[in-house]
Amino acid sequence: MIWQLLIVFASLITGDDKELIERLRKRDPDAMADLYDRFSRVVYSVIFRIVRNAAVAEELAQESFFRAWNRAGSFDAERGRIGPWLLTIARNRAIDYLRSTAGQQQATTFELLSSERISLFVNTEDRMLDQEQARRIRAAFAKLNPNQREVLELAYFEGLSQSEMAAKLGQPLGTVKTWVRSALTTLRESFHVA
Amino acid sequence: MSLDNLDPQDRDLIYEMYSLGLLEPEEMAEVRSKIEAGDAQAMEGMRRAALLTSSLAHVAPEMKPHARLRRQLLIAAGAPERGTGWAWIVALAATTVILGVITFNMWQDVNRRELQLTELRTQLQSSEQFGVQARELYDFLRQPSTINVKFGDGQPEPPKGQVFINRERGVLLFAGNLPAMPVGKIFEMWFVPKGGGAPIPAGLFRGEGGQGIHFQRGAVDPSKIAAIAVTLEPEAGSTTPSMPILFAAPVEAE
To answer: What is the Cα–Cα distance from B118 to B219, expressed in whole angstroms?
Structure first.
């Protein structure tokens, strides 16, 4: 019993996914509490930023955690990283909600679901969820020019396509594509160098 | 577009745009088919892209979800909520009770000490009064002008005692063998004037255990007093004696 507590405690401190995924796979109800305690803030923050409504954000966060809970059985505890996967689920739920309220659900739901494939989250690093990594991505994002930041925010937090961004910003599609490409390239380079 | 013909950086860009949903439909379809086919290069590219694009989550201002979200999730997952639950109510109630008991005890202690203090103050005042009276009586008795009259000596059934008279200060009576005071009665002292006038009231006093002390302050002229007498009177006192004289001490002024 004491060893189990120590293992749980250690996993909370070190953010070890392996032990948490194992318990989620066994549908240990306490694992849901640990999953929530580790990721609820960042999950809720992303969803709220997208839908900008607390009640809807709570509902979508709940859906996201349950989706992870119900699909954790397919996760490979040795190779999988649950944080990025959970965030992808959360972001997709929120974008899907935005799309559905705008009557555009059918066009994107399939693509959103395909980005949640568990196989895409094996052998990835979970470091993206630690505080140091959060600081690094914010620093890298701050290096972008306003246009680059705007198109990335429109893509990530509003789920807009490049054509939709061009229409929204009143810019030629080519200009928006340039901003998107340069933004992602700069972000990738800054992020990996930082 | 053919992913196979792109250089590594452009491929990374395509995967990142795919994960953000920014590719055109035909580009989307190509990437998706590679992912579904388990293409190793595509999977690796998508993992890197997912890491980068998911990191954008940190750009969102940090928000804290309401506590009910955790409760709802845990209940739905069938987990007993680990958190405070009712425990905080029990802890609060226990703390309140303990604080209440401590406060009540302190309040009782303070009250008890206040009572003791009041009692001590009363005792002190009483002692001070006694001291003042003792000093007054001592001064009275040591005056050379104070005369002393004994009464009742040699009589088998008292009362007996002494009367001290000082012209400037008054009359002090010590009486013994006094009868018990009936309920509603009190001893009253009288100055019996020479020449047969009506007795003059000279104060009320109580007896205890057959003893009685009375000090009637004020100037008095012993040469005009034939005797000091005592009667039992109603508690309010009388202006003239209404009961028989218990004893009378004759005054013989020099």
So the answer is: 37
